[in-house]
Every structure is written in structure tokens, then in C-alpha cells.
Amino acid sequence: MSRPVLSTHVLDTSTGTPAVGLFVDLYKKRDESWTLWHSTTTSGDGRVQFPFSQDSMAAGTYKLKFNVEDYFKKNDKATLYPFVEIVFKVSEGAHYHIPLLLSPYGYTTYRGS
């Protein structure tokens, strides 16, 4: 199987473990609005490999929405953030890995490999 065009990995830095079962929505920008394109949850190691090929995921602007509040509620923790949204641009022929390092009161992201 070829490498997915888009993947993410969420780590809960408050526990030092993967964020298992976190709901993630992928949106694509069309004109001036967002269209929900795919919904999923993180795996047992906190990862998602979206099932899109180079042919099915065209160049454009996309958004990952991580439903953080639901995740922390499930783990009996309060959080400042109900959700985290990461907006990014995709070019033809590239792989995008968008990690999220998460705690109840902060987060960071970067372009991974």
C-alpha cells in the first residue's frame, strides 16, 4: 500500500501517552466555507492515517478539528479548549503529517515527516 497523503499523531503530554479515541474531523475549504470530508478517531497509538490517495486528495486548504473537550472529559480532566483546529495547505504530490502535542491547558503542532 502506498503512503497516505495525510496522517496525524496526537500525544497527551500531561500523561506522556498517545491520545487514544480522540475524535478528529477533516474539512476541505470550498469557496468561503468548510465542507466536512471525513470523521474518525485516533487509534490505540494516537494515530490516524486518512484513506486518501494523491488522486482523491487534491491540492487545496484543509482543516483538522480535534475534539479535545470530549477526550479530556472521558479521562476525568478539565480543559481550556473545547476543540483545536489546524488549518493547512496541501500541494500535489506531497505527504502531510500533522502531529498534535496536547495537554489540558496548551497545545502545539508542526509539520512532521
UniProtKB/TrEMBL annotation:
Q: Where does substrate bind?
A: H9, R47, Y110
Q: Which family does it belong to?
A: Belongs to the transthyretin family. 5-hydroxyisourate hydrolase subfamily.
- Identify the InterPro entries for this entry: Hydroxyisourate_hydrolase, Thyroxine_BS, Transthyretin/HIU_hydrolase, Transthyretin/HIU_hydrolase_d, Transthyretin/HIU_hydrolase_sf, Transthyretin_CS
One GO term (biological process): purine nucleobase metabolic process
Q: What is its EC number?
A: 3.5.2.17
Name the reaction it catalyses.
Answer: 5-hydroxyisourate + H2O = 5-hydroxy-2-oxo-4-ureido-2,5-dihydro-1H-imidazole-5-carboxylate + H(+)
Q: Does the keyword Lipid biosynthesis apply?
A: no
Q: Name one Pfam family in it.
A: Transthyretin
Q: Which GO terms describe its molecular function?
A: hydroxyisourate hydrolase activity
What's in the keyword line of the UniProt record? Hydrolase, Purine metabolism
Subunit relationships = Homotetramer.
Its recorded name reads 5-hydroxyisourate hydrolase
- CDD domains the UniProt entry points to: TLP_HIUase
- Enzyme kind, highest EC tier: hydrolase
Q: Which PROSITE patterns match?
A: TRANSTHYRETIN_1 (PS00768), TRANSTHYRETIN_2 (PS00769)
Annotated Transthyretin/hydroxyisourate hydrolase domain ranges read 1-112
Protein purpose:
Catalyzes the hydrolysis of 5-hydroxyisourate (HIU) to 2-oxo-4-hydroxy-4-carboxy-5-ureidoimidazoline (OHCU).
